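Researcher: I'd like a candidate sequence for this fold, 315 residues long. If you have to choose between options at a position, lean toward the conservative one.
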């Protein structure tokens, strides 16, 4: 393992942990502005984390060890997911493990622990939120896999670093399959990150909330880790979209100095993506929970059709 590889890997983890709350604050700020509301501070997510870390964690008497362990597991899975996505450089020591299937597996592992912890206390809202979360995962993860497989066919590898290097060196070409995969990925990202139209992160209405129902029983440092993990998940999905559809600007293994330009390029692309996410949430209304399977089913069909279109055009 080279020193530059270790440095780029460490830098990616530090950037993800540091910028993830900032991205959430950026989206919330633009969303408020677009709705003609008074916008919260850009640093509000950091203030929230600071406040929660300084509060005592209240745990129910019947909570098991799983309930206390789940926040750390979820936070670790999201951090590792951000670490294996090539956002600044493709020279990563974790590159052999940066596989598309492993990435989806990390999201699934975090979801399972999160849902089991929500049901551990035995409250009705926690169980309801866990069921909805597992339903979304059951429908969203296959669609995400199909999107990643569409790009794996182009790169002839499921390694994320290989996919980024291949796409960055290809001539600019518009693939019909990539357009369908882009729409499917956007739909999956909205559902996985509890954004409008699938869920509304700003509401606490009991009968419609999904993510908020899972964290009702948490407080203090446990709640801070889960909120931080939610920001990391949004950051990870944003970086996946940038790596697949806008891979330019990522430094290569033989160009360590390119990381000096990769960081401002990443911040710029994340700023544009956060603004577009706020626009999407403003233009759409929240759908009924019973419409979510249709929404994610459409995403899965689009991703499969996109992969089939690519196979037909190639062969």
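Model: Candidate sequence:
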């Amino acid at each position: 393992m080279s020193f530059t590889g270790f440095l780029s890997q460490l830098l990616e983890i530090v950037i993800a942990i540091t910028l993830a709350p900032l991205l959430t604050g950026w989206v919330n700020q633009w969303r408020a502005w677009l709705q003609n509301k008074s916008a919260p501070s850009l640093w509000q997510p950091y203030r929230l984390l600071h406040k929660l870390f300084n509060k005592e964690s209240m745990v129910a008497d019947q909570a098991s060890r799983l309930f206390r362990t789940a926040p750390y597991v979820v936070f670790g899975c999201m951090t590792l997911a951000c670490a294996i996505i090539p956002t600044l450089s493709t020279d990563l020591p974790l590159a052999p493990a940066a596989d598309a299937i492993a990435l989806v597996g990390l999201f699934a592992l975090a979801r399972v622990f999160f849902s089991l912890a929500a049901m551990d206390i035995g409250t009705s809202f926690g169980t309801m939120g866990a069921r909805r979360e597992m339903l979304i995962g059951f429908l969203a993860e296959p669609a995400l896999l199909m999107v990643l497989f569409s790009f794996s066919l182009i790169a002839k590898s499921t390694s994320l670093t290989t996919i980024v290097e291949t796409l960055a060196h290809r001539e600019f070409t518009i693939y019909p399959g990539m357009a369908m995969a882009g729409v499917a990925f956007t739909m999956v990202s909205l559902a996985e990150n509890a954004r409008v139209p699938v869920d509304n992160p700003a509401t606490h209405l009991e009968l419609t909330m999904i993510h908020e129902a899972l964290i009702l029983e948490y407080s203090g440092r446990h709640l801070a880790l889960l909120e931080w993990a939610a920001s990391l998940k949004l950051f990870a999905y944003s970086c996946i979209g940038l790596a697949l559809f806008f891979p330019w600007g990522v430094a290569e293994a033989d160009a360590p100095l390119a990381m000096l330009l990769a960081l401002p390029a990443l911040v710029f692309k994340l700023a544009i993506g956060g603004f577009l996410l706020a626009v999407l949430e403003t233009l759409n209304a929240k759908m009924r929970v019973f419409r979510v399977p249709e929404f994610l089913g459409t995403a899965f069909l689009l991703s499969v059709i996109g992969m089939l279109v690519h196979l037909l055009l190639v062969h």
